Amino acid sequence: MTDTLWLSRRRFLKVMAGTAGALVVGIGSARAADTPPVPLGLLGDAWSQVGPYLRLDADGRIFIGARDPDNGEGTATSLPRLVAEELDADWTRVVVVPLGLGVEDGNGEPRWLYGRQRSGQGDSIPTAWTDMRQAGALARSMLLQAAAQRLGVAAGQLRVENGTVIAPDGRRLSYGQLAEAASQLAAPDTMPALKTPDRFRLVGQPVGDVDAHAAVTGKLAYAIDTADGDAMVAVLSRCPYPGGTLDGVDTGDTLKVKGVLQVIQLQPEAGQGLGMTPLAPAVAVLAEDTWSALEGRKKLKLSWKPGAMPLPSLSDLEKQAQASFDSPDALVTVVRDDGDALGLLKKKGVRRIDATYVQPWIAHAVAEPLACTVRVDPDTSAVITTASQAPRDAYTIVQRLTGLRASQIRIDVPRGGGAFGRRLLHDHLAEAMIIAMAEKPEPLRKRAIKVMWTRDEDLAHDAWRAPTIHRMSATIDQRKGITGWVQNMASPNRDLPAPARPWMSELVQDAMPAGLVSNFRSNWYALDTPLPRGEWRGTPHLSHAFASESFIDEIANALKANPLDVRLRLLGEPRKLPYRGPGGPTVDTGRLVNVLRQVADRIDWKRWLHSETGLGLACYYVNGGYVAHAIEVANKGNGQIDVVRAVCAVDVGQPVNPLGLQAQVMGGTIDALSTAMNLSITFRDGQVQQKNFRDYPIANTAQMPNDVEVIIVPSEAAPAGASVLAMPTAAPALANAVFRATAVRVRRLPLLREVARLS
Amino acid sequence: MQQPQVLQAPPTSEIKREPIREGLELVINGKRFRHTGDEALPLLWYLRDILRLTGAKYGCDEGECGFCTVLVDGKAALACRLTMGKLANKHVTTVEGLGKPDGSLHPLQQAWIDEDAVLCGYCQPGQLMAAADLIARKPDPSDADIDHIGTLCRCGSYPRVRKAIKRAAKAMRDAR
Lengths: 759, 176
Fold this sequence. Notes:
The complex is a heterodimer. Chain A is built from 17 helices and 33 strands. By secondary structure, chain A is α+β, with helices and mostly antiparallel strands. In chain A, β10 and β11 form a beta hairpin. Chain B has a 5-stranded mixed beta sheet with strand order 2-1-5-3-4, with helices on one face. The longest helix of chain B has 18 residues. The N and C termini of chain B lie far apart (74 Å). The mean pLDDT of chain B is 94.
């Protein structure tokens, strides 16, 4: 039998009898036209053997679907935990099933079966906090109802322990024994109540990653490891000039390489519209295996022409920014304007302080280079395997290039080797589809094709984290502290030739210290560069926090005050401030003060003034979470800095899996430190200069602190996401610590190069 | 007086020559393989594309990331830098062969799970094989010893990898 419990006009849970006596629960979201009483058959789900979210088998195994892509954020573990919690399931009987893209035909439009299926901005857990728990709670209530009938006891008198229903007289029935009976029941009319936090058994308890065993035995297959039978392998040589064109090709020597099958030119048409990043013109070498393809690529003789638009360097952009900041005629976007910060700045006799911070392009450099396997028959089907943060966007590309229907397109999304925003884009998939659709000799048609990016191409053809230039000005007073704050930010235009179209996520209107300083002004100016740009692990917060949290320390220094005291004074009494954007509608300054105090205590902040080492602090709110870092560094001389200690305190509300949360915070801290210390993408003669890890030196273990001390604030508030949480504060805390240790104020990243230049 | 012995003419030899065995032999995870293809083929692609052992990962192709670290005769080596021609009669161990043939885990693999050292997991085969080499040389590795592991991790799992190496080393010392 099949039954549906409507949670709202748009969301529903569906209960089904699966094969072999299984109970299946799915979560659906319907469009307005589908609201009851549309026949249930139209609402889908039944095609799947594993229910979209939960399938309880008669043998007691519990299959739970992990709907959001996991690229190392740990959601394949934490999301199923939410279902298991409300179900009171025995976690050892849970089998997590990664869900590919859930899509079906809806009258010519795709109908998404599993919701957004998007990972980014750390909102997988906040989104799942309600619906995935409801799926578990519904299943539990139906199992209890089935047990009540079987045992002749009111459901309210039964309790559940680890997947076993226990009657007051001690009789026991396992979930497996009840699955079939429960699947025959009608769903209740109203949603069973969710647990209060005091009844959590799994949420809040540490648990290891569900894929750990497969990862350490080498059995975990990433997209780059898939072969789909016997896929041909394509590697590409892309135009090294962003915006450039292919001028000449000689493939003669390539075609002589054993194993090379074909050379295909990719000349993407203008406005082909493959996401925000236009494809670079490229030449693909298709071969029987990877090595032949790589050897074939080495033998290509290609000439490329730079694009019409010159490529400004970072110092060119800096000049653009300074000119804009100084010109009354420059096109400005006022992000926020409180009081009269500009007036205060011009007032005679006020003390002001100014500083400009410059942050470079950075690459994603995902561990697993972009790769996907596609098997395409343009008339009947497309089967895709790729890591992705947004499989729905991957679907759109495949659909647009093939014209196939939803039921003919399958997209599998295995665990990805890192993502950081890079896998929101699917240029590698678009390339694979173009190669698959290209004319080929008969034996090659319909064979699967794997496209694999090489590291040099990965660094040279990224949608980079764009550079930012912040000119910060503040009016300060020995007695009153910070009285006014003006920040001018310049960053690349979203797309040319629009005169000034901001990259919307970059304008965080209410980022610290907005709302904390009564005279506050925040401006944005466009920089002109044709380079593609993208999201990079909390993009806007990283740039903002480095500028504002460094500047607060500069202000403290000017006031000869303790940077901790300056921050505490700025944050003031615990209160809620309005906050637009992810994590809003309010932020709680008290929660930020708490994490700040926690790291200060842990690192023993009272040593700050006299310590031979340098201590630095920073704090920030991001996506509804609160974070503070305390960093301790030793000056090794000659521009060498040793990070001795890194302490990070976070308040994300209720931690779902503290072990996973700690991993995100530890990893984020190290990523942010490594990036701030060493990394930048630079351009010379219109090309990216970095070719591999030797010149894009991700830190190794020796260069990083031996430990990251993570403090997790206990909380029962609804959880916020964690994957970008530790990113914004690590770099400014480091720069603030370096200032204490070396007297060098770093206003330009990467930091180590700057320390060496200035000391 | 003895008659001089008449020497019999020996029978025509029927000894067959050894057949010419093409290529080279090597042992991978305890199994013998014969490679008859190009000797310039890097071990990484022999493992991944021919044997379909995909535990050793591609990351940079220039020996800079360590994701493809394997053991050759017990010592850490980068599979992307080693050509098949240099591997005749060598013993290669990949992450798939790190545990026992019965499927039980190597203490390092167990420690990795116990410390939850996997983030995205992509570099971890390379971390594990580098650690296997280290722990064989240094049963009680110091922080400075662990610092010599150059395998990169994009997710920043280093502190947990460090703890896992120490945990495994202790487990192995205690088992002796």
